[in-house]
Each structure stands twice: as structure tokens, then as C-alpha cells.
Amino acid sequence: MTTTLTRGAAGRAPERRGLAGGFVLLAGLVVIIAAVGIWHLTQGTSGLTAADLFRGLLGEPVHVGGVSVDAVFLGSRLPRLFAGIAVGFSLGVAGALLQSVTRNPLASPDTLAITSGSYFALAAVAAFNVSVPFWASSGVAFFGGVLAAALVLGLTGSAAGSANTRLILAGSAISMALSAGTAMLLILFKESTKGLFAWGNGSLAQLNIDASVRAAPLIAVVLTLALLFSRRLDALGLGDDAAASLGVSVRSTRMTAVICAVLLTSTSVTLAGPIGFVGLGGPVLARLLANRVAALRKHAFLIPASGLLGALLILLADALLRAALTPEGATTIPTGIPTAFIGGIIIIVLAMRLRDAGSARVASSASSIRIHRRFVTVLVIVASLLIAAIVVGMLAGNVWLRLGDLSLWAQSSAPDLVRRALDERAARVAAALVGGAALALAGTIVQGTTRNPLAEPSLLGISAGAGVGAVFVVTTGFAGGGRLPLVVMAVLAALATFALVTLLSWRGGLLPDRFVLIGIGCGFALTAVTTFMLLSSDPWQTPRILTWLSGTTYGRSFWDALPGAAVLALAVPFFASQHRELDLLSVDDDTPRLLGIRLERTRLWVLTIAAVLAAVSVVAVGVVGFVGLVAPHFARTLVGARHARVIPVAMLLGALLVLVADTLGRTLISPAQLPAGLMVALVGAPYFVWLLRRSRG
């Protein structure tokens, strides 16, 4: 009996040491946060030094520029610090809960579109001038976030064990659609929502400390509830069947964790706007530390550690940003920009460590559509619709013209006012046609080559890279900032992004899932870089930059369509001659090799041309999403899977989609205009949702 007691005591000793290590780690994180918080308090635009602040807190009357230390400390710096801690802690805990219930290391409030859903709900309330108190605004944000999370988790087939690529694709697409809807509200109701534009990238600036104080009890209650469920979450990590055998209600545990995560996310969005990827970074760092501190494998320690690391991340990002740019220079740069950049890098690192689970596949309903007559019929119908859309696009605008005006313009005998209107519209129509066709062709190639029918250029970071190149030229005045440098840099940046994604993905071959995830991570990081350049540049350049980034043909000339037309003239014959190879690449890796095709080299060449097509589309129509997804899928539904038929139909459909979106955008609220990219996103997102729903399982 003595031996048994001795063995039991010896067995409990490592457990006690592990628990002690967990408490030491939590205490250490608190100390580090306190140190960073003190540094954070010394930063500001008032001119107070750390010594002034210290003397003022000791009771000495210190004034700088007629402002007392107490006013600065209580009115600006302490509220900003508390907001950073509250937001970071909330997002860190939310991310840990979401990763646990989905058993997916890439799950977070951002990748599940919770942040975008909360922001959209708040923007909708502001747009319609609904005045609500703080607690009610948190409820509005919660409602939007929980709907977005339910949609994403529902589309991935189940709430747990979802494939990494599928989850991130669903979250990214829903987030893009919600962001487009939010941007639409900001444009349509600019007087009611003007304060939300800068806030939309996440800002810790606070009017006073009241908001953080009111949020603290809710955060504490949700944290307590999450800790009470920690043992259930531990069991859930063993699998649904194992957890159920231990008496854990899997469904209620998962639902409670998701609701807690959405509550925390909505609170953070209400406090500081949508600050991205803190909910990804905090839990990821905590799980990495679990390799050294065994206690973090238990949710009782993992949850608070994730929250503390989230708070540390956001305070460090804010402090480093203000230290690098000076507090005055950092006032125009929201805290969400550096955190989004860090989040993109985290996705890339995690994707490089993940095994490829196989591409998501969409069952084709066109297996019976093989006859040549059907292909010709579809081609004629789509071409006819495109011609009709071109005519309407020429006639529609602030002033609707007539066919007679168009005839006179074609004969160079139209009145001056009509001539100028049609010259402008013709350039916009040409840009829409070229941009839409290029995006559709690029999407067709990317989907077939990666064998991932849910991939497209805007989700692979290629469009974001081209946008960075264009914005760099505009903001720096590189090579005079003219049209040619902009085109060249957009193409080079897109190719550089593609090269980076390919290089990072190439480990044992270009695996489709890894390629897509790394592309998404690069897209997030590059979008943060673009936003940084936009906000830190000359504000007089902002309208021109937004022209390129919002997905619109506004201000385009025929020269903007020329690069895309030239690349299409070369790419279409090339892909037409390689259609059999493209068909084989879309089957599997073994069949092309058996038939003598050099798989990796062919795939690399094909994807490189797709990257160029995506780059020149940015020059023509800006950053437009979903065209490269919707057009190829719709084409396959109509004419089958063979590339010889898909390519021409997809190009016509892509051109038709962008042209119709642009025409609607410049006529629905004329004389104001809605960017074509937003219109396409609002149309493309429901189609994407349908595709994901159709491919469940």
C-alpha cells in the first residue's frame, strides 16, 4: 500500500510541475504586458515625456502646452491602453475557442468572417441613422457576427474537422462579400457613415475610458464561462466520438464556444473597429508555446494565455507603429494594418506546415453536355448578350443616349457633347470587356491547373500584388508616375507575388491546397501594405488610388485596355493550342506524367501566364473579385469540362459580368457611381455560397 501511495505521489509530481509552469507563464505574460503598457503610455502627440508623465502621476503639477498630465493620461493614453488590452484579450480568447471547436489552426474571427459580419451590422445601423447605446451596439455586432459564423461553418460541411482550404475559402469569400456590402453602405450613406471609414481598419483611439470599463464585465463573464467549459473542450480535442463517450455534449459545447467567441469579437469590434488577425496570432503563439509548457495543452491555461498573447500582440503592434512613424505620423495609420500584415504571415507559415488534404471538388452537372451543337448554341447566345450589353453600356449614363447618337458617333459626325460622352463610355466598355475576359481566362487556368475549383486570382494574392505595384507608382511618383510605369509595376508586382507564392508552396511539388492557402495569406499581407501606402500618402492622391483599387472603369482610357488586349491576343492562341494538356492537368498528377507531360514545368508556365492576365486586368478594371470564380464555373455548367469549350465561353461570360456590373454601377444612383468591383462581389458571393453548399462532403 505504501508503494502504491508513493507511485501516486510520484505520478502527481510532474502534473504539479506542469501546473506550476502554466501559472509561471501566465504571470510572466502579465509582467511583459505591464512593461509594454508602460512604454505604450509614454507615447503620444501631446509632447509629454516619460519623465513628465511620471512626475505628474506622483502629484506634481505638470503642464505641456496648457494641458495637464491628468487630462492627457485619463483622456487619451490610458483609454487607448485599456482598449488595446480589452480588444487583444477578447480576440485572443475568441480565436482559441474557434480553433478548438473546429480543430483547425487557421480558424479565427477573421477567417470565419465574424469580424466582417459584425462590422457590416454596425455599418447598416449607422447608415439608417439608428441611434443605439454601447450595449445595444454590441448586440448588433453580435447578431452580424453570429450569422456570418453560422454561414461559414455551415458551408464547410460541419463545425469541426473541416478541411483547411475549404474553411479559409469560405471565410475569405463571405468576408469579401460583407466588405463589399459595407463599402456599398459607406458610399450610399456617406453622411451617416463617414466616421466609419477610417474606423473600418481598426483604431484604438478612444474619447474616454468609459467604453472599455463597460466592456470589462462582459469580457470577464465570457472568460469565466469559457474556463468552466475548459474540460469539455479538452475532451472535444480527442474527437467527437471520444468526447461523447466521456459524457460531453458535443453539440452544446461547440455552440457555447462559438457564441462566446462571437460575443468577444463583437465587443472588440464595437470598441475599436475590425482589427484583424489578433485572434489568429494569439492562439497560434500559445499553441507553439505548448511544445515547451505542457500546461498549455489544457484549455484552462490555453484560453487565458491566448488572450494575454493577443493583448501583447496588439499593444506591441500599436507601440511599434508609433515608434517607427512617430506618434504624429501614426495617427493616420490604424492599428489593424500591422496586425493584418502579421496575420497574413501567420497564415503563410501555418500553410507551409500543413499537409495537402486534396483539392475541393465541385461535381459537374454538365456530364451529358458533350455535343458540339450545344457548345455552338451557348456561344452564340452569350455573344449576343454581350453585344446587347455593349450597346446598353454605350447608351447608359448620366444622360441616356439613343441609337441614332451612337450611329452618328460611329460616323464621326456626332455633336460635341455626345461625342465626348461616347468617347468616355467606349473606353470604359473596352476596359470592362478586356478586364473581365482576362480575369475569366486566368480563373479558368488557375482552377484547372491547381485542381481547386474554388480558387481564383483574387484569392491567390495575384490581384493584391498587382494593386501594390500600381499604388506604389502613384504614391511615390516612381518614374514620373505615368501610365507606362504604372502598368509595368503592376505586372512586375503580380509576377513577383506569384513567384513568392510558388516558391513558398514548392515543397515536394506544387500541391494545390498549400498553394491556395499561401496565396490567401500573401493576399492579406499585401492588402495591408496597400492600405498603409494609401493612408500614408498625399491625401490628394487618394481618389486616384481608389480608382485603381475599388474595381471600377472610372477614368479609364483605351490605353488602359491595351495591355490586357495585347496579353489576351497572345494567351488565347497559346491556351487554345494547349487545351489537351490543360484537360490532363485538371485530372490528376499521374496521368500527365504517364503521357509524357512534364508536370511541374507545364504547371509553372501556365500559372505564370495566368498571373500576367490577372495583372493586366488590374490595369484595366482595378481589383475585382469573383469574376475568375463565377465565369469558369458557369461555363463548365453550360458546355462541360473540356478547356477547348470552357475557355471561349468563360471569357465571354467574364466580359459580360464586368460590363453589366460597371453599367449598373454608373447608372443606378447616377450621377454618383458604385464601383463595379462591389457590384460583382455582391453577385459573385451568393454564387460562391451556392458552389460551396453544392460541394459539401
General description of the model:
There is one protein chain. The longest helix is centred in the first third of the chain and has 40 residues, at 2-41. The protein folds into two domains: 32-353, Orthogonal Bundle (ABC transporter involved in vitamin B12 uptake, BtuC), CATH 1.10.3470.10; 372-694, ABC transporter involved in vitamin B12 uptake, BtuC. It is an all-alpha fold. It has a two-stranded antiparallel ribbon with strand order 1-2. It is built from 29 helices and two strands. Strand 1 (63-64) and strand 2 (67-68) form a beta hairpin. The protein has helices spanning 2-41, 50-57, 69-102, 114-127, 134-155, 164-188, 190-193, 196-199, 210-228, 230-236, 240-245, 250-272, 278-289, 299-330, 336-353, 372-395, 403-410, 416-450, 462-476, 483-505, 512-536, 542-549, 558-577, 579-585, 590-594, 599-621, 627-639, 643-665, 676-694, and strands at residues 63-64, 67-68.
